[in-house]
Amino acid sequence: MSVTISAPDAVRVPLLPPPPLLAVNGLSRSFGPGCPRCEQLTGDAAGTSRCAACGTVIAVHEVSFEVGAGEVIGIVGESGSGKTTLLRSLHLDAVPGAGSMRVAGYGDLFTSSTPRTELRRSAVVMVHQNALAAGLSPGLAAESNVAERLLSTGCRNFTDARGQVSGLLEELGIHPSRHADPLGTFSGGMQQRVQLARALVSPPRVLLLDEPTTGLDPSVQADLLETVQRVTDKLGSATVVVSHDLDVVRILASRVLVLHYGRVVEHGIPEQVLDDPQHPYTQLLVASRLR
Ligand SMILES: Nc1ncnc2c1ncn2[C@@H]1O[C@H](COP(=O)(O)OP(=O)(O)OP(=O)(O)O)[C@@H](O)[C@H]1O
């Protein structure tokens, strides 16, 4: 008698892992003329990101990472380590000196012929530290601030737009009785939620979070982080969060990169990097957080 053994569905695995939604490769950016000695005179061993020969600052040097759908990667580092420059580059404020930023369905955003404003509408969206400094209007209703982005992506069905905006604001913890209130009358934490709603109302491929909880009370921070976690999970964007606060990264991210003088000196899962840091700089960063 012959017996056929077949694997149960649960143990079938795809031959290849799914491609990442965001793949950053060799991103470098510097400020200054550059010279042949820049690389040698900057970085960990040199103890500076400024070249002693020509004064150029190597703000970000050969940074590479990948982020999958629904995944959050955290970037940490002290002031001046290059976090903002990296995030701004990912938000296409300028084309960096070298590297690529591939986003599924769009190719390399750094060399794309699609206008930057268009890419920022559909492919890559940033949530800034402060909603009002990020360009949201304090005099405009919360719902109008959110609807503005939806309409800019081409949505012309106003009834649908209203329903979508209102549903999302409610999901992010803004009670319907406040949707028509001017944004300027909201607390800092609520303004951040409106900014998040604006970013997600037309889900971007890549979501960039720049110090999303700075200046908020600890209880408001925890609520906001829980919300970010829930919505990024649900919408499946690739998320990059930059924060001084190691706890923010520990809560949100499944992987963390440590930047020092613009270089990645350590990366891994938060439990590994933050609980058992290997690089002396990460050890210092973690120790200063505990002091
Ligand atoms: N436009 C610029 N011109 C010259 N140097 C710059 C410019 N922008 C940034 N830098 C330098 O690049 C390095 C990295 O700066 P960046 O702002 O990216 O660091 P950061 O980690 O975000 O710091 P912070 O946490 O204080 O915002 C710093 O030495 C900074 O002085």
TrEMBL record:
Keywords: ATP-binding, Nucleotide-binding, Plasmid. SUPFAM superfamilies: P-loop containing nucleoside triphosphate hydrolases (SSF52540). PANTHER family: PHOSPHONATES UTILIZATION ATP-BINDING PROTEIN PHNK-RELATED (PTHR42764:SF1). It comes from Arthrobacter sulfonylureivorans. Pfam families: ABC_tran. Residues 36-286 form the ABC transporter domain. One of its GO terms (molecular function) is ATP binding. This is ATP-binding cassette domain-containing protein. SMART domains: AAA (SM00382).
